[in-house]
Each structure stands twice: as structure tokens, then as C-alpha cells.
């Protein structure tokens, strides 16, 4: 099936009891066992089925199957938020210690997770000087457990060379984990280029309506955990909490995602509610259509801004002179992201005036909504980073991040135009 069809049908057929066409909301905490042996088999991971909704739920299971099929993976785990998904994704490879080597262009909270939170758990985040493959490779050593990148950086908009990063990671015996939130599997399928694990904040483009938090981890099934037994003992030595189960032996290609569910979801419980899973499924049904409109509108807005004398710069990868333009052609089929940044002449104060003057475009920190959204990253999403860390991540004091929605493009541009009038009145008069 193709993207548009998978987004509507994957993972569900009308269930046998009622033949409901819509995915039912299984609002239950627990599930009955046929007998004591049946319950034991479920908890020993010897039989498939549902035990407790902290571990798995039928509504969430449909969501997991749908996203897994969209990404071309062997399995997925749905969790409460995108940040929970990132946390589980990292500790699931590095809970015996080690380091994660990352590109520097990251969402602010992800940077905080790697630089401040995980080190308290014995896991070090290492940030390369750039997203270039050679900069990443310089930081990989015998204690590295994964390479990490956002396929499209938030808010920098940089497009990572997934194929090159995967080759470097695999040459050193570690997986490549990517956050594919901004691209979605509609624009980019990172497993096709060698990535091993994909993480999403479902709150963003996949959900699309800005009402529902959620996250997911998707396993490609391609990383050979057994081949790298010394580096990843958790997959190759008996787990005493499951009576000596060895994940690489028991689960094969699905070892990573099964361990994430059985070890982390079960014990730490960042649970996605069935109702949230249902709402996210509604959004995913239209994601392919929405991404087309997001991309088209963003191109028109970026072109307007670039021609406007009140604007100092526009960081949009769809322009041929962007350093990421060749990667947009290779990985995104020429479809530059609807997330991009720009700066207004007059610096930070003019930028703040522009930001405050917006009427249609909503001021907030979310992205990927059907509505157009604006953010001032230096004072919000990246506030906890130093000025130098912000700069490397693609955030300047005057940076405005836009997430262009699916409204009529003319209405979006009119709102930007009137806000620019208020921010730069002298430059408007000079242009006239």
C-alpha cells in the first residue's frame, strides 16, 4: 500500500464482535486471562496478547501498526509524548552506560535531555560541531551506543545526510536513531537510507490538530544486536527480570522494540491513553493530504519573505542557494519542510514587535498543526541553552520560527505583511 492508503487502513480491519469500521476506544486498565497458565505465558513474553494497558492496549496497538507500516518498520511502541519516546529510545541502547553522539541542531528539550538529564543516569550526550558526517565520526569511540540526528532540525531546518550518518554509525557498530517528527514518513522514510530507529512526536504533523500529546518509537528491525554483543549486553545476556530471557535470541529482528516495551514501558509507564491514540489516528488519516498543503504554502510564504525589503534573511531549504538544497532533492523529493526560520531587519526588538503583531498566526511553541504557528525560540524552546549553543543549533536572538499551516496561503501572507508593517514602518516607507 502507498502512504495515503496506509494512513487510513493500516493496522485495522473491522473487529469481529461488532464489525465497527472506526477503531474502537478500548478504555480499560486490564484484560482477563483464560487461566493461570495463560496469564503466566503473557507475563513471561511467551504468548501474544494484552495484559495491562500500561504495557499495551488494542487501540494503541492499531496506532503502532499504522505508524510502523508508514515507516517500513517491524514494530512500534506508542508512549505518552515525543520526549518520552526519545528517553526510552536512548536508554534502550545505553542503560549499561556509554554515550550518544548527536548533531548539534536539536529541539531545545532534546538538547536538555542529552546534556543534563541523561548524564545523571550514566549516559553522556556528545554534540558534534556540525551535522556533517565527519564531525559526528570524530566523537564516536568504544563507549558510543548510538548516533542521533533529527532528519529535519527544529528549528534550524537543516536536513541531515541520513545515508552518510548511517554508514558511519554502522562502521563503528552502533545504530542510527533519528527523530523524524518534522519530515514524517510522508516526506522521508529514513529506514530506506540506513537509519535503524525512528522517533516521532505524534503531537506534531502526524496528529496535526494540536489537541493531543503522543510519541512513538519505530524499529526498522535491521540493526544486528547479536553481532555487537559486547557493546550491547542487554540484548545478548540473560535478563534476570524475565527468568533469563535473551532478547536477541527470543525476538530476533524485533528485539529492540520488544525490549523497549517489556523493560521501559512496563516499569516506567509513560502511557499513551487509548482516547489519545484514537484522536491521533484521526489525524493520521489526513496526513498525506496535509503535508502537500503544508509544503506548498511554506514555499509561497518563504518566497514572499525573501523578496520583502523588511526581512534580513530567510532560512528555507527549498531555495537553490541553501546548503541543504541537494539533500532536499535526495531525501525529500524536493519538498522543503513547512518549518523554517527568518529574521527581520531591526534585530530582536523588531522581531518581537512583529511577533506580537501577528493576528492569524498563533504564538506558541508547538509545530505541525493545521494552523500556522510562530515561535521565538531564543526565549522559549531553546531558553535553557547558552547563547553559543543556541547559535550552533541555528537560533539567533532575532530568529522567528514559522510552522506554516494549511489555511489559504494569501491569508497567511497578509497576516505576515501587516505584522511586518508594524515592526518596520520606516523601511516600508523607504521601499515605497
Mean pLDDT across residues: 93
CATH class designation of the largest domain: Alpha Beta
Please give the share of residues in helix.
40-55%
Percent in strands? 5-15%
Query: Could you say how many structural domains there are in total?
Result: 2
Tell me the distance between the termini.
54 Å
Query: What's the CATH architecture name of the largest domain?
Result: 3-Layer(aba) Sandwich
Any idea what the radius of gyration is? 22 Å
Low-confidence stretches: none
Q: How many DSSP helices? A: 18
The main sheet orders its strands as 1-7-6-5-4-2-3
Would you tell me which CATH topology of the largest domain applies?
Aspartate Aminotransferase, domain 2
Approximate shape: globular
Largest sheet composition:
7 strands, mixed
Q: Give the helices and strands as they follow along the chain.
A: HHHEHEHEHEHEHEEHHHHHEHEHEEHEHH
Would you identify the CATH H-level superfamily of the largest domain? Answer: Type I PLP-dependent aspartate aminotransferase-like (Major domain)
- Strand segment count: 12
Structural class determined from secondary elements: alpha/beta
Any chance you could write out the topology, listing elements then pairs?
Layout: H1 3-9, H2 36-43, H3 58-71, E1 75-79, H4 82-94, E2 98-102, H5 108-117, E3 123-127, H6 133-137, E4 144-150, H7 162-171, E5 176-179, H8 184-187, E6 197-201, E7 215-219, H9 233-236, H10 247-251, H11 255-268, H12 274-284, H13 287-307, E8 311-315, H14 325-332, E9 339-344, H15 347-357, E10 362-363, E11 373-375, H16 387-392, E12 400-403, H17 409-423, H18 425-431
Parallel strand pairs: 2-3, 2-4, 4-5, 5-6, 10-11
Antiparallel strand pairs: 1-7, 6-7, 8-9, 9-12, 11-12
Helix pairs in contact: 1-3, 3-12, 4-11, 15-17
Amino acid at each position: 500500500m502507498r502512504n495515503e492508503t496506509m494512513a487510513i487502513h493500516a493496522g485495522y480491519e473491522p473487529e469481529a464482535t461488532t464489525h465497527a469500521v472506526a477503531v474502537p476506544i478500548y478504555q480499560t486498565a486490564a484484560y482477563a486471562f483464560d487461566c493461570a497458565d495463560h496469564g503466566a505465558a503473557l507475563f513471561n513474553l511467551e504468548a501474544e496478547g494484552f495484559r495491562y494497558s500500561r504495557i499495551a492496549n488494542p487501540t494503541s496497538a492499531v496506532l503502532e501498526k499504522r505508524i510502523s507500516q508508514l515507516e517500513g518498520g517491524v514494530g512500534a511502541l506508542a508512549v505518552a509524548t515525543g520526549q518520552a519516546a526519545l528517553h526510552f529510545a536512548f536508554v534502550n541502547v545505553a542503560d549499561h552506560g556509554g554515550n550518544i553522539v548527536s548533531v548539534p541542531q536539536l529541539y531545545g528539550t532534546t538538547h536538555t535531555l542529552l546534556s543534563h538529564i541523561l548524564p545523571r543516569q550514566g549516559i553522556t550526550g556528545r554534540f558534534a560541531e556540525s551535522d556533517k558526517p565527519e564531525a559526528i565520526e570524530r566523537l564516536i569511540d568504544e563507549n558510543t551506543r548510538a548516533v542521533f540526528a533529527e532528519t529535519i532540525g527544529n528549528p534550524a531546518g537543516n536536513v541531515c545526510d541520513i545515508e552518510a550518518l548511517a554508514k558511519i554509525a554502522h562502521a563503528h557498530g552502533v545504530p542510527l536513531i533519528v527523530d523524524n517528527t518534522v519530515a514524517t514518513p510522508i516526506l522521508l522514510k529514513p529506514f530506506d537510507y540506513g537509519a535503524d530507529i525512528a522517533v516521532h512526536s505524534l503531537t506534531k504533523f502526524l496528529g496535526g490538530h494540536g489537541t493531543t500529546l503522543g510519541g512513538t518509537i519505530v524499529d526498522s528491525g535491521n540493526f544486528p544486536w547479536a553481532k555487537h554483543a559486547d557493546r550491547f549486553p542487554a540484548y545478548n545476556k540473560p535478563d534476570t527480570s524475565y527468568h533469563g530471557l535473551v532478547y536477541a535470541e527470543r525476538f530476533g529482528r524485533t528485539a529492540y522494540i520488544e525490549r523497549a516495551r517489556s523493560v521501559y514501558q512496563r516499569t516506567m509507564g509513560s502511557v499513551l491513553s487509548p482516547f489519545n491514540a484514537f484522536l491521533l489516528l484521526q489525524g493520521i488519516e489526513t496526513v498525506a493530504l496535509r503535508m502537500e498543503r503544508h509544503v506548498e504554502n511554506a514555499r509561497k510564504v518563504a518566497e514572499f519573505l525573501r523578496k520583502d525589503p523588511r526581512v534580513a534573511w530567510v532560512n528555507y531549504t527549498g531555495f537553490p542557494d541553501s546548503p541543504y538544497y541537494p539533500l532536499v532533492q535526495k531525501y525529500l523529493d524536493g519538498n522543503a519542510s513547512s518549518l523554517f526560520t527568518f529574521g527581520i531587519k531591526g534585530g530582536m526588538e523588531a522581531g518581537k514587535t512583529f511577533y506580537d503583531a501577528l493576528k492569524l498566526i498563533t504564538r506558541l511553541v508547538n509545530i505541525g498543526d493545521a494552523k500556522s504557528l510562530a515561535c521565538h525560540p531564543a526565549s522559549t524552546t531553546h531558553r535553557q541553552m547558552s547563547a553559543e549553543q543556541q547559535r550552533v543549533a541555528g537560533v539567533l536572538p532575532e530568529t522567528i520560527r514559522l510552522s506554516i499551516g494549511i489555511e489559504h496561503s494569501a491569508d497567511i501572507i497578509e497576516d505576515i505583511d501587516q505584522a511586518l508593517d508594524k515592526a518596520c514602518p520606516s523601511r516600508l516607507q523607504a521601499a515605497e
